[in-house]
Amino acid sequence: QVQLVESGGGLVQTGDSLRLSCTISGGKARDYNMGWFRQAPGKEREFVAAINFGRSTFYYADAVNGRFIVSRDNRKSAAYLQMYNLKPEDTAVYFCAAQWWTTADQQMRIDSAYTDWGQGTQVTVSP
Prior knowledge:
Layout: E1 3-7, E2 10-13, E3 18-25, E4 32-39, E5 46-51, E6 58-60, E7 68-73, E8 78-83, E9 92-100, E10 116-117, E11 121-126
Parallel strand pairs: 2-11
Antiparallel strand pairs: 1-3, 3-8, 4-5, 4-9, 5-6, 7-8, 9-10, 9-11
């Protein structure tokens, strides 16, 4: 099991950019696919983006496709979510999550397929 800590959230205005970071400890970053999820008050947790262990497979939710970029640096044991052109509907707590690298690609968009989660970081986008 690995430990994940998100950072980089904050209060921004519509159209602004923000970069979220997720540090990984207790294991080797290269052993895990990494996903980003978010949850707004009263809403179900939803998939945002994911990147596999070798940076060869990417997934994005339709709501963020073209605006968000997921990346990672295994040597630095970190994953990132670069967010551009933020909208009020992006307001949520953002979580990073990890799953073992052999997990099937189609499971990278499924929250129940992830075994380790960070505590979350708040992103608030004002109109």
